[in-house]
Structure formats: structure tokens, C-alpha cells
Amino acid sequence: MQTFLSASHNVLNELGRGIASIHKQKFAYIGQPDKTVQYPIQQFYTRLSVEIENLLERFNSDQPFFQDFWITLKPQLLSLHLPKYSSLVTIDMDPTQFLGVSI
Known about the structure:
Layout: H1 2-5, H2 9-23, E1 29-31, E2 38-40, H3 44-60, H4 64-78
Antiparallel strand pairs: 1-2
Helix pairs in contact: 3-4
């Protein structure tokens, strides 16, 4: 954060332009930007549900709350309108931005 506080207006403006140019790109597929993993956009929610189930099995298999919640949430996810396109997502590994669940 200190890096941004001390940066000039021009540097911040150029950084914003660069990030915006990355995120305004549109694709008809989901997967890796280098196309090593690629699925049609029509498979978005199906692929997302598979990955959610993988994460639940890996990290929360012993917690019925998460399993039960997913049983309720999955049909709702699969009933959403398909996205028209995908875009790049920047992974931010700042640990202060991680979400958690308090149970």
C-alpha cells in the first residue's frame, strides 16, 4: 500500500490504464489465457460447480455445513443465465483481502 501512496498521479494513472486495458478484453472461452486449458463459455457454470466440489472435497470434506450449503446453492448456480463473454481476472495474493467464514 505504501508504494501506491507515494506514487505520482501520472504513475497511478498509467497503472489504471494498464489494468483497464487488460480487463476490457472479451473472450468466448474460459480457462487459461495461454489456452492450455480452454472450455467454451457455455460450460462456465458447469465447470465452476466442478471446481467448487473439488475445493469442498479438498478443504471442507469434514464440515457438513459447507456440504449442505452447496446442496442448496448448486441448483441456483446452474440456473443462472450464461455469461456472454469472459475476461481476464488478476489474482491478488494480498492475504489481507482473503474472505473467511466465521462459524
